[in-house]
Amino acid sequence: MHRFLVFVLLLSFTVSSFAQDSIPKKTYNIKRTTTPPKIDGILDDEVWKNADIATDFVQFRPAIGNTLPEDQKTIVKMAYDDEAIYVAAYLHDKPENIMRQFTSRDNFGINDFFIIAINPNNDGQNDTNFVVFPNGNQADAIANPSVGEDFSWNAVWQNAARVVDDGWIAEVKIPYRTLRFTNQKEPTWGIQFHRQFRKTRKQYTWNPFDPTKGYIGLYAGELKGLRDIHPPTRLIFYPFASTVVRSRDGQTTDEYNFGMDVKYGITENFTLDATLVPDFSQAGFDNLQLNLGPFEQTFSEQRQFFTEGVDLFNKGNLFFSRRIGNSPSGSVETADNEELVDFPSEVKLINAVKVSGRTKNGLGIGFFNAITEKTKASIRNTDTGEFREEVVEPLTNYNIMVVDQQFNKNSSISLINTNVTRNGSRFRDANVTALVADIVNKKNTVNIDAQLKLSNRNLATGTETGFNSFFAIRKISGKFRYSFDHSFSNTKFDINDLGLNFRNNFNNFGLDASYQIFEPTEKLNNFRINTWVNYRRLYDPDVYTGANFGVNMFAVLKKSLMAFGANASFAPGKQFDYFEPRDFDNRRFFITENRFNVRGFISTDYNKVFALDLNARFSTQFEENQGFTTYRINFEPRVRVNDKFILSYSSSLNVQNNRRGYANNSNDLENEIIFGQRDQIELVNSISGNYSFNPFHSLNLTFRNYWTTVDYDETPYFLQDNGRLVQSQNTFEDLSLGNSNINFSTWNLDFSYTWQFGPGSFLTALYRNQIFNQTEESEATYFNSLNRLFDEPIDHTLSVRLVYFIDYNNVKNIFKSKKRRGKINS
Fold first, then answer.
1. Which tens digits make up the pLDDT trace of 116-136?
2. Cα distances (Å, whole numbers) of residue 484 to 251, 434, 506, 514, 537
């Protein structure tokens, strides 16, 4: 409770005393047009003849304050009507210096680019970015201080680009449906233009930006002259059809799906997103790997509904979307005469909706709901042959509610609640609430980040209540920066029904300091070095668990643009690992001592035809009778064959010798925790090729082979109550770890094709063939393992999906036009 009081007092003082300094801003006066331009990259339209000019761009990287020479001058013009904002940019340059590569959407590749950042609320925190590349590709993102740039957000807008004798031209139409704003008579919007020269990595903005302090959104100019514009009815339909064919070992299954996703503007600023007939069969493929650690293996979200427009729901890090539709939460108990025949690997989603938006006063509100269906496992009676079913996941409802208030153009306070309700007395319910503050002072020099979280889980044994907190104060301006942070969690804190939390029960402290340059030196474009110290304790019992310190360096050479860096860390003395033993109830721990890690890397200039990424890492432990070594090297060459085709290869080798770890997976001894000393070799090879015909057609082919062996010494080790290991005792002389050995390998070949055949409309095809094998033959060589891998049946998966974009306003206008023509004819 005392932590909460300190937090509230500090927050009250901070909010009452902070205000935003005035920042000089350029102004652009936009004019209304009755004849919109044709978006073709040819600036001969009447509207551009009398439009005001935005020019005099100013550099912010790698130097600050430089202006553009005449042969690289940037000229931007704007116009508007009742439907959209129009932008034309003439970006002068020598054609041979313009970097241009065809890429997929939101992929910056090796490109110059031009960004239009619009903020209808003019609040310094909520930009909508539209990016145009010289070859006509586009990218878009929502941007704010909390999430940075979120490119999972996609809108439907129009652009054209054309390279000319003295540079390149970008012409853009941004429909009002892509922006969130209220009815205003004469609004003032935030506006910023951003240009990068890829060849030199120089970056410029129209309104000057000071990278030494403050978020870039604070430095936007102002857009004036808009009058009597009204947000349209935002109703968009995405009907789709898909088919999936799977084949394995002669058995083929297929499925066909039809459905629709809908976006509806409830008000000018709030949007409803719904997936009415969910179909995530084409979400993408996960890359399997062996997991020997104490924590669950997780993969990133690939379902678009759960990645797009979720910035509000990610406040406080309480939402891990892959919990929805993941494996069932329940388990099955079988009798001696029963066998488990089928246990579902995932739970089907019935429906999902999200409502989110932000008022012109900075109040963000978000509501998320998803429902998954009742899921059953199948059990067979081995005596009678009869089958029975048992529910392993009941009908389940997932909810998130978020309220986020932004203020002072640089700060916010959020209240978040997540709730999981399972329809069944055997299954747990969960509720988590968080209060999150991200506050910056008026000079944009100091940041306070504070979080309070409370979790409740209704279990069969009763209700468990957990608490977690985080506090950090940081200097966020200038060359020298530093911070202090404290994180705390009691033993009952658990958000894993809808969130992701690997551990609880800690009381940790950290210090960080850094130095960086903002102006190039004689040899360096960029340079940053930082150091840190971490001190860790348990909450219960209140004991020391470990500490470490380290240093990290990153730099970019001025002439060659090669990036390089290194880091090193050391954990001195005894480190108490409470997780590797997997005995969380009895708080058993495993002691290691004096761990040391060092890593270095180089990355050559991607602008060149050939580029190379190379990094190496070495780890060891200075401890008597328990030393281990780890070597890792990663080699990634890439070739840019031309502006349409890039080929890359990656090879990673990781070798661990004499490492001791948990090995109870194949030995059933009560009240004993068994460790083994093991050698592990891990080799991953992948080749990827991407070919883009034009901005609307692209192909990608990726091959990946993952192989690892884990070879245990025959003699096991027993974990003692003091955290030390002793070799096998006499009573267990026959115990061997040979059946803990692993030979794990996978192969997958992934092919994808994307065709954008209309605005917002796509045809995509995905194909994967995959082979998987796991044995105990840890001494087998790589090539022997590969030969045996191809003796296994191959999984084939082919999916095709067609999505069509329908804007209600376009349909309405078609009927209006037909009606007008009918009146004229009559």
1. 999 999 999 999 999 999 999
2. 58, 21, 17, 12, 16
